[in-house]
Amino acid sequence: MTERRNNARPTARRRGAGSAGAERRYALVKWGLLAALVVYAVLVVGMNAARNVDFSVIRSAMAAAPGVAELKSLDENGFQERLDTAPDGCEGWLMVGSEDIMDVSELMIAKADAATLDRLESAVQRRLEAQLAVFRSYGVNQKDLLEGARVLRRGDYLFYAVGERADPWEDAFLACIR
Amino acid sequence: MVFSSLHFLYIFLPLVMLAHRFAPRHWRNGVLLAASVWFYAWGEPVYVGLMLFSVAWNYLTGLQLAAAARPSRKKRVLAGAVAVNLAVLGFFKYYGFLVQTLNGALGLRLPDYNLPLPIGISFYTFQALSYIIDVYRGTTKPQRSLVDFATYITMFPQLVAGPIVKYADIEAQLQKRSASLAQVGQGLERVILGLSKKVLLANNLGLLADTMRAAPGLSVLSAWLGAAAYTLQIYFDFSGYSDMAIGMGRMLGFSFAENFDYPYRARSVTEFWRRWHISLSGWFRDYVYIPLGGNRVGAGRHILNLLAVWLLTGLWHGASWNFVVWGLYYALLLIAEKHITGKALGRLPAGLARAITLVLVTVGWIIFSNTDFAAMGRYLGCLVGVGAGGFADRTFLYALRSHGLLLAFAALCCGPGLRQWQLRLTGKLPAVALAVFAGLLVACTAYLVQGSYNPFLYFRF
Fold first, then answer.
1. In what side-by-side order are the strands of the sheet with A150-154?
2. DSSP character at residue B270
């Protein structure tokens, strides 16, 4: 019995030392994971962040983007007509759209606080739903364009674009705020 | 990827089921893990990293808890791990809400990063928390295989909208599982049933609810009709998702616990919460309410416990004040039931008790569905005639005529009768049952071909 007990003690100690070592290793890896998480969070935030630029910079850049000049620049009434909400509370905004009712192309960018952007984003989603309901049954191209609509939130900005040139418009917008 | 999408139903799901079925047994979890990451990455490529962090962090925490010798050390490891899980959840889900609240209240200009919500973060974080707490308590052994643990956390059927599956409940199935052809058939039936609830019922009820909400000069009856439509929509939307998750689980050889038990038949709010989102209520009961003392404490402390649990339940549902109010609304109802009205409610005829509960739950959904307090107030006012455009109007009559059948059928589906009939039919006339399910699948597919993107309501959480 004595012998067995003597044998047991070092084994337990060894096991204890082993699990203490394992625990330290796990802790070390977890610290590494935490560091990776911080880097990851910074990257995600960076991807979503937007430089605070004057809205006139965005307006000029978008005016030079391909196809924008062919669309009609909309005033407040036009904005309200299409989105069923006014651009009240925006620090800056622009909206252009086609005058041809069969052409679904439109572009809207707004700079505002989060609550206003929430309101505008909901309005944009409603607009897309309404347009899809109109064109779903017979406008194959229009339906495809509407389903490929870009709706982005970056910092204080909301970007919404439908059209064959939505990609270059998005690139031009992102180039302004990065 | 959304369950109610053609891509998921006709490409992803069949491919994964075939790959899982024909893979060697020891590769099955690997197949399921790869499929789950593919599923998540489809809509959230950026946030796959966050999910994998959660997997690695909680896997290592389980091993660390097992290796820690002293109870005090175990407690520190658990506290640190829980804090990190909650910090991740807090930053990615609640940061914007906190900043907006602070900026609004204190006039600060703290930056709001407008981060999109990582889909399913509340669900997988709660699963991970249940695992590490159970390992700490010694009720669960730590999982030594990273692949098996990652499969548990990321499993696509319940990844983005639950049910919240406790590790202990599927530990054995993670090691060894099988699904006979009969089980696969039953699972498929359940998937089609859930899909039908979502596509045929919830989406159409949602259109009615939205129409009524947007109608100008809402009458009292229109307001109640809209509220009833939303009450039914959220039930069929969420229980439909749970049905699909349970069905897919069965097809893969897992047995997930039920998440709904005909909640609108509840005779009290307490009973409603035993029947609605059972996995979430169970989580809060096991990991918050009981550790706080549950109901084995004085009346004052019990009230505080209920307030704490329901404040957290409300916040869990979303980073918005209306969810906080919704949680407190239920806290007050439950406190009243447990300390004041409980016995009286128990003496009421069952039908009356059910009706009272249903009205209280319906009012709760109005709080739940309105992030704008002004709109919420207006709608609640319309229900009792304050600011309403009369008692009844043409909108109500039109909606009743156009959607009356849908509402009546949906109400019928809230009870067990139809399901029991379907199970009897499947047992006695399998060919007819097969034809019914095939018909439902065709109808859902037709709707999905025509319809627009319509995600599940609980994806927001």
1. A72-73, A90-97, A106-112, A157-162, A150-154
2. H
User: Residue A113: CB partners within 8 Å, gap ≥ 6?
Assistant: A89, A156
Written as tens digits, the pLDDT of chain B (461 aa) is 778 888 889 999 999 999 999 999 889 999 999 999 999 998 778 899 999 999 999 999 999 999 988 899 999 999 999 999 999 999 988 888 888 888 888 887 777 777 778 888 999 999 999 999 999 999 999 999 999 999 999 999 988 777 899 999 999 999 888 888 889 999 999 999 999 999 999 989 988 998 888 778 889 999 999 999 999 999 999 999 999 999 999 999 999 999 999 999 999 999 999 999 999 999 999 999 999 998 888 888 999 999 999 999 999 998 889 999 999 999 999 999 988 887 787 788 989 999 999 999 999 999 999 888 888 999 999 999 888 788 888 888 988 898 999 999 999 999 998 888 888 888 888 888 889 999 999 999 988 877 654 655 655 55
Chain A positions in Cβ-Cβ contact with residue B211 (cut-off 8 Å): none
Same domain membership, residue A129 and residue A88: yes
What is the C-alpha separation between B54 and B125, in angstroms, rounded? 7
**Contacting residues of B for A37, CB less than 8 Å apart:** 53, 57, 88
Considering the domain architecture, whether residues A22 and A61 belong to the same structural domain is answered as: no
Range of the domain at A30: 1-48
* Residue A128 CB contacts under 8 Å (≥ 6 apart), including other chains: A146, A149, A151, A162
In terms of domains, do A59 and A128 share one?
yes
Strand ranges inside A72-143, DSSP E: 72-73, 90-97, 106-112
pTM assigned to the model:
0.82
Q: Which residues of A touch B450 (CB under 8 A)?
A: 136
Identify the closest residue of chain A to B100 by CA–CA distance.
A114
Mark whether A162 and A75 lie in a shared domain.
Answer: yes
Task: Name the domain count of chain A.
Answer: 2
Residues A68 and A138 in one domain: yes
For chain B, domain boundaries:
6-177, 183-267+348-460
Residues A88 and A147 in one domain: yes
What's the CA gap between A168 and B4, in Å, rounded? 32
End-to-end CA distance of chain A: 75
CB-CB: which of A22, A30, A49 is closest to B67?
Answer: A22
Nearest-CA neighbor of B158 among B40, B293, B316, B302? Answer: B40
Please tell me whether residues A60 and A130 are part of one structural domain.
yes
Q: Which of A11, A28, A48 is the last residue of a domain?
A: A48
Q: Nearest CA of chain B to the CA of A69: how many Å? A: 30
Q: Which of B67, B69, B113 sits opposite A49 (nearest CB)?
A: B113
The amino acid present at B246, given as its one-letter code, is I
Residues A27 and A94 in one domain: no
Return the CA Rg of chain B: 23
| Residue B140 DSSP one-character state | S
